[in-house]
Write a structure and sequence with these properties.
The chain is of the alpha/beta class. Helices cover about 45% and strands about 15% of the residues. Adenosine-5'-diphosphate (ADP) binds next to helix 5.
Length: about 750
């Protein structure tokens, strides 16, 4: 039995710290303890492994409680010169095997994982040496012939092959976008230029994505240096054109490892000098530095780390003696496993390609999405669109329908600019179908969407009005009057319903045969054909921040909080926020709530508080049950809790929809809008009246035919038939349960 083979498991964080490492440690520890496996924390990375003693200590269920929201790593990290030596690794092997540790979860960057790989391959020899020295008994060595290694990539740079996102990269992007948003407002006030330096010695991910998410005008990265030698002049020309077109701020993002075509470093100081000398602008440099590593992890990083920590331990429990070290990552919301050696080799291949000035190869190795993001940024940040090349010009309209979702403005901006850049005429429909019917349809130019990339709300206006029988003729007239060739509807459930109604009326009103595409924007994440809709990430982060505060306020009392979150018929926000905040119980609309559930919950709570529990966190989706409301559940718990605990309730309400979109929502909105414009242009060319909705599925942008909408949603509830995230339910449950050894 695999569980008999593993004696003890070690967890360490190594190299540069990254936000989310704590959640990974917690997940690994709790998954192992839940399976009856002993877990040791190895403090201070490999140095702790070499030094042993108090630096390798057992962890209990409670030791990893209350840490998911904390930045950094509670078990410490270090760079260890000793571990790079064979004597160091011999001491490390002895320290592990003496504690019967032969499985490791290593959370670190490519250096740390390379070290783990070396160690794993040397392990049999090291044990043999220890036996020969008489340091350990042959039987002990025999019991641990293989060292099993599972690697998680903790690195804010997102610089490692084997995962779409490394632990910490999303949070770092949060810090960078917040900083650039703040800088742009001061820059605009004074008409100043700013050079912002971000981390990334060999990787331009943070720089490119931050530029895309903030509309910084220029970005310099290691993988793709400027094409020309006199790039300084090209850059300044572009920036001057921006000013002439009316931009008040200039922001250049420089990755730490930026260089020119000849491999000469481009420093932020140098860029500042160039700007001052050639544009005469007052220019400031901001080096973001360690701020990027700091602060509380984003919802995404907490959940990513939790899922990966769980997957790594599950894998180790079943690993064969012959199995090679694996890296755990994600691709399109699915957990992936890749041989560690391959990941390290591919990662080094990018650095090697950059060093050899083979930039085409470096960009290829980064993948299609990266190249696309780079290209899209270059277009969106232009002062004005490219001159038309004489191709067919279509008239395309953009509108919203449904409730507000952060990121709607970002999507409109990208659609308008990318449409204009391709030589089409773009129109904005104000106030959803209400505006359509009233003929409130206006041309939109390049500058009409300036600054919308980061702005919450919906400048075009949105509502849930659906067109009905008496409106179709008016809508058809407006389409004819404006000679529209295509329609992009950015919105939620109502947008999809409205589009579906329109295509059903096409025989009666031929004008409705124009191509229509829906882009998913709903905080509820309840739309078919897309694993994540725009706005859901922002709402999730809003919830997580609020719950963190609620938890803090409760620490002084023995209290249970019942928190109500939005989501309607989809429990996405409830489940993901519970996983990210340590909510121990989550009420989902997919499961409903029974009286029996509530009785069990009361009993669990009473038992927990009797055993010394201080805080309870229950998260309820707003539509989980019409009778057992948040108020009802809170009152029930209060009454049944007696003197054991107090109960507070928090209905988070509209704060969940507010605020500026997160970097993820901005990037997704931009990518999806770009795909929709391409799709509309092609469909307009075919003139076959296609209608579709777009979405991200398994890491790819895909379109589904609108006529298939009814087959893809549940008949009785407003949600997709397939909801990938429900598979995470058992992981969330495991992490938040009370110590299984105590209960
Ligand atoms: P990161 O893991 O963030 O890339 P480093 O490259 O500094 O950070 O690696 C962290 C630690 O991992 C190093 O201090 C060292 O102890 C260990 N390490 C890195 N590379 C190797 C290697 N080739 N062999 C053995 N240990 C290594």
């Amino acid at each position: 039995m695999p569980t008999e083979r593993i004696r003890s498991l070690g967890v360490l964080t190594s190299g540069g710290d990254a936000q989310g490492m704590n959640a990974a440690v917690r997940a690994a520890v709790r998954t192992a303890l839940n399976r009856g496996i002993q877990v040791y924390a190895i403090y201070e990375g490999y140095q702790g492994m070499v030094d042993g003693g108090e630096l390798i200590r057992k962890l209990s269920w409670a030791d990893v409680g209350g840490i998911v929201h904390r930045g950094g790593t509670i078990i410490g990290t270090a760079r260890s010169a000793d571990f790079r030596t064979s004597e160091g690794r011999l001491r490390a092997a002895r320290n592990l095997v003496e504690r019967e540790i032969d499985s490791l979860v290593v959370i670190g960057g490519d250096g740390s994982l390379t070290g783990a790989n070396t160690f794993r391959h040397e392990w049999p020899k090291l044990l043999e040496q220890l036996v020969q020295q008489g340091s350990i008994a042959p039987k002990l060595a025999d019991r641990h012939r293989t060292l099993h290694v599972a690697g998680l990539v903790g690195s804010i740079d997102n610089d490692m092959f084997g995962t779409d996102m490394t632990i910490g990269a999303d949070t770092a992007l949060h810090r960078i976008t917040a900083a650039i948003d703040a800088i742009s407002s001061t820059a605009a006030s004074h008409q100043r230029s700013f050079v912002v330096e971000v981390m990334g010695r060999h990787c331009g991910y943070l720089a490119v994505m931050a530029a895309l998410a903030t509309s910084a005008e220029w970005v310099l990265i290691p993988e793709n240096p400027p094409e020309v030698d006199d790039w300084e002049e090209m850059m300044c020309r572009r920036l001057r054109a921006g000013r002439e077109a009316g931009r008040r701020d200039t922001i250049v993002v420089v990755a730490e490892g930026a260089q020119d075509r000849h491999g000469r470093p481009i420093s932020s100081e140098y860029v500042k000098r160039v700007l001052e000398e050639r544009t005469g602008d007052d220019t400031r440099v901001t080096i973001l530095g360690h701020v990027q590593r700091g602060g509380s992890p984003s919802a995404f990083d907490r959940n990513l780390s939790t899922i990966l920590g769980y997957a790594a331990v599950e894998h180790l429990l079943g690993a064969e003696d012959s199995s090679e070290p694996q890296v755990f990552g994600i691709r399109g919301n699915r957990i992936t496993r890749t041989p560690l050696l391959h990941c390290v080799e591919q990662t080094h291949a990018v650095a090697d390609a950059i060093a050899a000035r083979n930039y085409e190869q470096a960009m290829d190795l980064r993948g299609r999405n990266f190249r696309e993001a780079y290209r899209t940024h270059r277009t969106l940040a232009r002062a004005l669109p490219h001159a038309s090349t004489g191709q067919e010009c279509y008239r395309l309209a953009v509108m919203h329908c449904g409730t507000l979702a952060p990121g709607m403005n970002t999507a409109v901006r990208a659609a308008v600019r990318l449409g204009l850049d391709k030589g089409h005429q773009m129109f904005g429909v104000r106030n959803g179908f209400r505006g359509f019917i009233a003929g409130d349809i206006q041309p939109m130019d390049w500058f009409s969407v300036n600054g919308w990339v980061s702005r919450g709300g919906a400048e075009l206006g949105t509502n849930r009005d659906l067109p009905s029988q008496e409106h179709f003729a008016r809508i058809a007239q407006e389409i004819d009057a404006h000679a529209l060739d295509g329609l992009l509807i950015i919105g939620g459930w109502s947008a999809y319903q409205a589009a579906y109604r329109l295509i059903r009326q096409r025989d009666a009103f031929p004008a409705l045969k124009l191509p229509i595409v829906c882009l998913p924007a709903s905080i509820n994440n309840d739309l078919p054909g897309s694993e994540l809709s725009i706005g859901a990430d922002t709402a999730l982060n809003n919830i997580v921040e609020a719950v963190d505060k609620i938890k803090q306020s409760a620490v002084a009392h023995r209290r249970v909080y019942v928190v109500e979150v939005m989501g309607r018929q989809s429990g996405y926000l409830a489940l993901m926020s519970a996983m990210a905040t340590g909510g121990e119980r989550v009420y989902l609309p997919e499961e409903g709530i029974t009286l029996h559930d509530l009785m069990t919950d009361v009993a669990t709570l009473r038992r927990g508080f009797e055993q010394g529990k201080q805080l309870g966190l229950y998260i309820r989706n707003d539509s989980a049950n019409p009778v057992y409301t948040t108020g009802f559940i809170a009152a029930l718990f209060e009454h049944e809790g007696g003197s054991l605990f107090d109960v507070g309730q928090a209905i988070l309400g509209h704060l969940q929809q507010g605020g500026n979109p997160t970097p993820f929502d901005r990037i997704q909105a931009t990518r999806l809008a770009a795909a929709c414009i391409d799709w509309l242009v092609e469909a307009a060319g075919r003139a076959t009246g296609d209608a579709a909705f777009v979405g991200m599925q398994e890491g790819e942008i895909r379109f589904n035919q609108l006529e298939n909408l009814p087959d893809m949603v549940e008949q009785t509830a407003r949600r997709p038939r397939v909801q990938w995230w429900l598979d995470l339910r058992p992981i969330a449950k495991l992490m938040s349960q009370q110590d299984p050894l105590q209960s």
